[in-house]
Here is the input.
Amino acid sequence: MSWNVIGSMGTEEREQALFAKCSEHVPALLAYVSRMLGGDRHKAEDIVQETLLRCWRKYRSGDEMLRPWLFTVARNLVIDGHRKKLVRPQEVDGAVWLGQEACQLDHIERMLSAVVVSEALKALSPIHQGVLYQTYYLGKTVEEAAETLGIPVGTVKSRIFYALRILRLALQERRAIPVGSDTDTPNILRHRSSSAA
Here is the structure.
């Protein structure tokens, strides 16, 4: 990429000397700005180009040293760009809005499902509730649940099977799932029954 600034190929000695000095600092300046922008090379190149334009227009060789001046200008441009983003309202297109809406609806659906499942859990006996609590809610393996409950592994598996069966019937009575096959079991029940068995 060429870093020539419009008019930078002038014949005056001052312009040529300034162009040569700027050219030696461009790679370091680009790396510095890229790091500040989280690796966004395109924005970094825009900032470096604007820095070089400002240098061309305003820098005087008698002022301070060129490298610190370039880095300060670039840093200020990055900060100004960040501040402009904060002040300006966020632009949202239709797809983002629909995605947010779908996420909110999904959250509401999960909350309602949780309420229905917790109501259906009341239909279980305490021993069946205990085994589902250990395996589903606490995420323990069958072996860990057996050790915690002080019962054999086979008993835990059996209780999980019957607990899920009773829970499925309770959910069908509440019309949370259609009456019929096991494939109509909500995902949370299928997930736990397959991993707990």
